[in-house]
Design a protein that fits this description.
By secondary structure, this protein is mainly beta. The protein contains three helices and 15 strands. It has one domain.
Length: 281
């Protein structure tokens, strides 16, 4: 845990208070049960597990095939390790065990949803009777499994539904591409039926969770009405989030060891606005 508090003042009328907190977490499964090295959980419309809880790995680790890119040419397809359904524009998986074929044994660790660091910065400024207070929260060093892309990036997954913007960058015979697979009416091992690193994204984010501006009414005014103090404020919560994560919200959440970090279209946190008055008698 890190904690730092710095009160002080710029002028007799303008003061500040700066508080920073943070925590680092190393997370590793030490043991499960006698003769049990791992157990699998998770998955949504995908064949096989999304999460593998394994001794020596972080809890709720994502598990599947690591995408090395997309097949660009027929020659590349022919020279690649044996892989069911391989074709130009489809996923090319890494042969992690080097046996010359892509099988379930090539599945591997793809990341985990538990942040290595969480922290926040609280800043409070006071000028005469005015106060401004804000809190910025951050979570770093974790991944999300953006399972919603199964619905939006592949034609046969949810036929007839609206598609995501990613399909605009799909691989085509004219322009190629090495990120978003070809948009076709096919489901197989090399398209959308397996758990792969295509769904795993960095979830790092910073969020302004609170911003409050307040005014403390003068004591000289309140004393006439036998009021010790009165404070008027306006407050905003979850005003913005900074993140490169492509889902609706990087703070996915979920149940530990089963669905943690699996994003199936989780709604974002809602913004809130409050106006209030506090009295003291």
């Amino acid at each position: 845990m890190i904690f730092r508090r710095l009160p002080g003042s710029f002028t007799p009328e303008l003061s500040y208070e700066f508080t920073a907190t943070g925590a680092f977490l190393k997370n590793e499964i030490i043991a499960i049960a006698p003769n049990v090295n791992y157990f699998d959980r998770g998955g949504s419309r995908i064949s096989g597990p999304v999460i593998r809880n394994q001794v020596g790995r972080p809890m709720s680790s994502f598990f599947g095939y690591k995408v090395a890119g997309l097949f660009q040419t027929e020659e590349e397809v022919q020279n690649a390790p044996a892989q069911d359904g391989k074709a130009v524009g489809r996923f090319r998986y890494e042969d992690t065990n080097g046996d010359g074929k892509i099988t379930a044994d090539d599945r591997t660790y793809l990341g985990d949803p538990i942040p290595d660091f969480t922290g926040g910065i609280n800043i409070k400024l006071t000028y005469r009777n005015f106060e401004l207070e804000t809190f910025l929260y951050t979570a770093l060093g974790f991944q999300n499994y953006h399972n919603a892309k199964w619905f939006t990036d592949f034609y046969p997954s949810f036929t007839g539904a609206a598609q995501g913007v990613n399909v605009k960058d799909s691989w085509t015979f004219e322009r190629g591409g090495n990120t978003v697979p070809i948009y076709e009416n096919v489901s197989n091992f090399s398209t959308n039926t397996q758990s792969t690193s295509y769904y795993v994204e960095q979830g790092n984010y910073a969020r302004l969770t609170n911003l409050q501006i307040a005014y403390n009414l003068p004591v000289s005014l309140l004393s006439r009405y036998k009021i010790e103090k009165a404070r008027v404020y306006i407050q905003g919560t979850n005003l913005f989030t900074i993140s490169k994560y492509s889902g609706l919200d990087p703070g996915v959440g979920g149940n530990a060891d089963t669905t943690l970090g699996i994003d199936v279209g989780n709604p974002p946190v809602t913004q809130g606005f409050n106006i209030g008055v506090n009295f003291g008698f």
